[in-house]
Amino acid sequence: MFILSLLLFVGGIALLGLAISMPVAPGVFFALGILVLSLGVALPIHFGGTPGAAQRWSISRKDS
Questions:
Q1: pTM to 2 decimals?
Q2: Which residues are listed as membrane-spanning (predicted)?
């Protein structure tokens, strides 16, 4: 998961840099770069984490 998110993050930054030098449709490459970069950041946040973390921080948990 880490390698995939790192590749997406670096690829998104590369697309953002490539958008500056594109003579045709730089906005498309810029928007695609933002989406790929966001996906690279969101994957470890969404799928990563410690198993059972949601139960440990649940509001409905009763401390006794």
A1: 0.69
A2: 29-54
